[in-house]
From TrEMBL:
<dbReference type="InterPro" id="IPR010273">
    <property type="entry name" value="DUF881"/>
</dbReference>
<dbReference type="GO" id="GO:0005886">
    <property type="term" value="C:plasma membrane"/>
</dbReference>
<dbReference type="Pfam" id="PF05949">
    <property type="entry name" value="DUF881"/>
</dbReference>
<protein>
    <submittedName>
        <fullName>Uncharacterized protein</fullName>
    </submittedName>
</protein>
<comment type="similarity">
    <text>Belongs to the UPF0749 family.</text>
</comment>
Length: 248
């Protein structure tokens, strides 16, 4: 309080300290006004400095998140390259062409290798004015959709470039949805390899299609299904590889 006292005492000219004859002194009012102005100034300075510090911390946090995601992407690419090298060495070790063919079929079914072929593209998104969970695509909604596509005859599925296998988790992580522990953002583009002439009709007969018709009609979520113009190319699941195999 010494600073405020000094400000208050030094803010008045000597003439103003003299009481007006026949009336109250001006000093208490002027001191009060001066103190209020000083307090407001100090509060504004502290608020401005605090806002600047929070902005710097937020920017630093965003930079760290971006750096971590970039490193994660680099490590995933390196892991995929190493898996491909291991796979090629394993194929070279198999001298029997029949065994190589069988190994390739198993790797394709397990999602350990990239695949390409005709198919459909399903795009789902949050409601235009979501606001609540009812207007958002949930992890359970995506799981239902993927299960319905498998039931409709899908041979391979990927969500926003992430390959879906029998071991791929689709989970909620706060406000985001993670697929294989990678956070994804809407809209969700589901690429499906399979017979495009029959898959959509077969999907429409599944419980998953009935569920999506319900949430799109009642909560404003959107879903579109279209046939891919060209062959779809789905990547391998970077965490999936054939470790052991036996022959009959």
């Amino acid at each position: 309080m010494s600073l405020l006292t000094d400000v208050a005492e030094g803010a008045l000219e000597p003439e103003y300290r003299v009481a007006v004859p026949g009336g109250p002194t001006r000093l208490p009012l002027l001191v009060a006004v001066t103190l209020i102005v000083a307090l407001v100034t100090v509060a504004l300075l502290q608020t401005t400095r605090g806002a600047g510090a929070e902005a710097d911390q937020r920017a630093d946090l965003l930079d760290r998140v971006a750096t971590a995601r970039a490193r994660q992407s680099d490590l995933a690419e390196r892991a995929a390259a190493l898996e491909q090298e291991v796979r090629e060495l394993g194929e070279e070790a198999l001298g029997d062409p029949t065994q190589r063919e069988r190994l390739g079929a198993v790797e394709t079914a397990a999602g350990a290798v990239p695949v390409a072929g005709p198919g459909i593209i399903v795009t789902v998104d949050d409601a235009a004015e979501g606001g609540t969970d009812n207007g958002l695509v949930l992890d359970s909604d995506l799981s239902r959709l993927v299960n319905g596509l498998w039931q409709a005859g899908a041979e391979a599925v990927a969500i926003n470039g992430r390959r879906i296998t029998t071991l791929t988790p689709i989970r909620a992580a706060g406000a985001a949805i993670t697929v294989d522990f990678v956070s994804l953002s809407p809209p969700y583009r589901v690429e499906v390899i399979g017979d495009p002439a029959t898959m959509q009709a077969r999907f429409n007969q599944t419980p998953a299609a009935a569920w999506w018709q319900f949430i799109t009609a009642n909560y404003g979520l959107t879903m579109t299904i279209e046939q891919a113009d060209d062959d779809l190319v789905l990547p391998a699941d970077p965490g999936m590889a054939i470790r052991y195999a036996t022959t009959d």
